Amino acid sequence: MDAQEQAPGLVRGEGLTAWRQIADALTAEIAAGRYPPGQQLPAEAALAARFAVNRHTVRRALAALAEGGLVRASQGRGTFVEEAPLAYPIGPRTRFSEIVAGAGREAWGDLVASTTVPAGPEQAAALALAPGAPILELLTVHRADDAPLSTALTWLPLPRFAGFAEAYAERGSITRAFAACGLHDYTRLSTRIRARPADSAEAQRLDIAPGRVVLVVSSVNIDPAGVPIQANRTLFASDRVELVIGG
């Protein structure tokens, strides 16, 4: 390491790497409130200048904080201190927009992709359809303020919800998209929850490190007549939500 790697506050030759010391210093500053939840950390170049290290060293320190769930790195925007976990009730009427708005944050859903696919065995059983029946598949990302809380695969029967993708893209809400399709109320029929590591594509959509744990919530919703209208597999960034199971 050359002279540029030396800086006040970084101790050399005692077995603790520069990136680890930077990570520890930023962790302490976050804990002390210098960088409150939701605030953007200084850019890599500014941190490199502050600690007199190269940007690779800073990048390794920030990666360690992201792996620990202390910050999130948003591609093209920077690194932000994680918000406190949002309490997310799961019950007969689970509504993402209402839950997020109730916590004083702005909710929005992004449509990543939509396509018509034949129902596989799992989707056919959940939606009470014949295997191979055409269904609408949506890939979405759901945000609180600008932080992605979850990403989901959603399946809906066709032709009943033929215009759902366009309605969702315009309104950013499953509930509002259902209303646009003439369905103004629905309830949760079943919920299953498990945990697993995120793959690289899921991690990218959620702004988390690959391999971080996600909570997988598989659910089925029904209309007031008891007809299945939605099967869903939602992946929550586990450090950003606290699932609350209620009646």
Give a description of the structure.
With 247 residues, the chain is of the alpha+beta class. The chain has two domains: 3-81, Arc Repressor Mutant, subunit A, CATH 1.10.10; 86-245, Chorismate lyase-like (Chorismate lyase), CATH 3.40.1410.10. The protein is 29% helix and 34% strand. The strands form three sheets. Strands 4-5-6-9-8-7 form a six-stranded antiparallel beta sheet. The chain has a two-stranded antiparallel ribbon with strand order 1-2. The longest helix is centred in the N-terminal third of the chain and has 14 residues, at 18-31. It is elongated, with a radius of gyration of 22 Å. It starts with 17 loop residues before the first helix and ends with a strand. The model is unreliable at 1-7 (pLDDT under 50). One of its GO terms (molecular function) is DNA-binding transcription factor activity. Residues 16-84 form the HTH gntR-type domain. Keywords: DNA-binding, Transcription, Transcription regulation.
